[in-house]
Structures are given as structure tokens and as C-alpha cells.
Amino acid sequence: MEDSGSGSGWGPGWTVSTPHPNGSYSANPAGVSELRNASSSNSSSQFAGVELLQSFKPLIIPCYALVVLVGVFGNYLLLYIICRTRKMHNVTNFFIGNLAFSDMLMCATCVPFTLAYAFNPRGWVFGRFMCYLVFLIQPVTVYVSVFTLTAIAVDRYHATVHPLKKRLSVPACAYVLVGIWLLSCALVAPAVAHTYHVEFQEEGFTICEEFWMGQEQEHLAYAYSTLVMTYILPLSALSLSYLCISVKLRSRVTPGQPSRNRASESQRERKIRKIFRLVVLVVSAFGICWLPIHVFNVLRDIDINLIDKRYFLLIQLLCHWCAMSSACCNPFLYAWLHDRFRAELRKMFAWRRRCSCHGGVVLPHSNSVAVSVML
């Protein structure tokens, strides 16, 4: 296995690329020489399939553009509805809002710079500062999105399985969200210490990559811990939480109203089937979207030669696109398939139509009652 590269591979540097805290190499000329040698070897293998990648450019760019459009607009609209609607200011929706914000930030940082770095023959062309800033934000937003998904599952588990227990308060929710961001930054720290911005003036290109020279065991430990923290544990938590929710809802009978008549029983069964479908979609979307990039990274960390160099960049870019598409799924799964969010969205667009039709004068209307469905 090569002595460079690591982690989750969701950034444009084809690794968990985050900035070195110093950005200076003059104090250790020998280290710079070793880094440049490793960089040259790594770059030659990574860009072996650049011609193949360029041939797929007309297909890849529209796919990524669609992810940016849907991910940014969908999550922004979701965040806007939560912020402007006071009755939606609760713990669950604050978690969903944090997820929308991190997904929106992930689309804005991961996608454009990934494409630019992939298709530009000069490598990273945005300068040292932007390399450090962008490559720091990328893994943090991924961690925040994954941990927030887990927090949503746990919160809904307690709300459904233990409805009589005291729920998380809004101040406590704020502490949890701050903790998620701080934990995400802390987990990125090992990658921060091993990522360098290197300019190859003679070759005419620049890289911003993660290198673990002489620390192979530490590299593997960090890579596999990233896999566990960002995929295995969250997927297990999602599956277990929503399984318990489904079992609880299936066995629940409304107090004081036993299911005696066929109509009420039929309505209850429809609700259970609807919730179960949403549960399956939530877990499946997370598992399917993030599986390819993690499989790719495991193969790369075991032996980079397991992946044909000609298809290396193309496969990694497609896996990265699949992971980023999760940011498009979340607004639909956590909002547009949710009764209350749909009701607020309809009210918002209806209000705008009335304003445009009546010169800005809003006519009185009856308020619709939305039933919130617990995923």
C-alpha cells in the first residue's frame, strides 16, 4: 500500500484533505524532499486515468450540478421553513435544521472544488489559504451530517418508544448541536496534522493532499476509525432506532379507544405502513449513498493496486457523487414526506401567490390543520 492518502475520500483531494496547521515547510528541508517524492509517486498513479475521466466530463458535470441545485435549494427551503415558522421550533426540527445546514454547506464546498480539482490539469489552483479552508470544512460537514442523522434517530426513538419520559429541552438540544460540531472538528484533527499544500513548479501543478509518511499503522487506525464513526455506528443506530419505532407503533393501541371497528383498524394499518416505508427509505438512503465511497476507501487502504489505475479517478469521483447525493435525499425524507412540512410549504407558496395576485394585499384565509407524522 502507498504511504500517502487516507480517511474518507469525500474531498477534492481524493482523500480526507484538510490543511496543515502551519503551511510551512522551510523548517524541515528533508521532510519536504520526502513529501515531494511521495507526492510525485502518488500523483502519477492518481492521474493515470485523467483522459478517461475527461471523456466522461459531459456526463459527470451535469450530475454534480443536479446535486448542487437540489441539495442547496432543497435544504435552504427546509431551513427557511423551520426558521420562519414558530410552531416548528422544537428539538426534532432543530436537529433537522442542523442537518439541512450541514448538507447545504457540504454541497457548496465539496462539489465545486472536487470537480475543479479533478478536471484541472494544474491540480489545486485556488491557493494555499482556500486549500486549508475548504479542506477543513469538507470533512467537518460530513461528520456533522452523519452525527445529526444519528441524533434525529435517537430523538425520535425516545419520543415514540418512551413517550412519557421527559424529552430533550431546547437548551439541551443547543448543547448537543454545539457538541456535534466540536466533536466533528476534533475528529478531523489527525488529518489536519498530515495534510500539505505542495507546489511542483517544474511540473506545473499543485496538490493539497494527506500524507502519513512513516506512520502506516496510525494511518490505518485513523482510516478504519473513520469508517466506524461515519458509517457502521450511525447505520447501526439508525437501523436499531427505527426498528424499535416500527415495533412500538405496530403494537400501540390508542388509550381509551381500542381498535374495535374496521375503519379505525384500517386507518391505523395505513399509518403504520406509511411510517414503515419512510423508515425503510431513511435507512436505505443512508446505507446506499455512503456505501460505495467507504468500500472504495477500504480497498484503497488495503492495497491501492486492487483498483485499476486507469479507472481509479473515475470510480472515486462516481463514489463521491453517490455520497454527496445523500444531501439531496435528506430534504425529501425529513421534510417533503412529512405532513407538517408539506402543509407549511403549501401555505408559504399560497401566500406568495395571493400577494402577487392582489398587489401585495393578503386576503384572510382559513388555517389548515397538519398532522405531524413521526418517522
UniProtKB/TrEMBL annotation:
Membrane association type: Multi-pass membrane protein
Organism: Acipenser ruthenus
Cellular location(s): Membrane
Record protein name field: Prolactin-releasing peptide receptor
Keyword set includes Transmembrane: yes
Domain of life: Eukaryota
Compositional bias (Polar residues): 15-26
GO CC annotations on file: neuron projection; plasma membrane
Compositional bias (Gly residues): 1-12
Residue ranges of the region described as Disordered: 1-26
Keyword field: G-protein coupled receptor, Membrane, Receptor, Transducer, Transmembrane, Transmembrane helix
One matching Pfam family: 7tm_1
Keyword Membrane: yes
Annotated GO MF terms: neuropeptide binding; neuropeptide Y receptor activity
Parts of the chain that traverse the membrane: 59-82, 94-119, 125-152, 172-193, 221-245, 275-293, 313-337
Annotated ranges, domain G-protein coupled receptors family 1 profile: 74-334
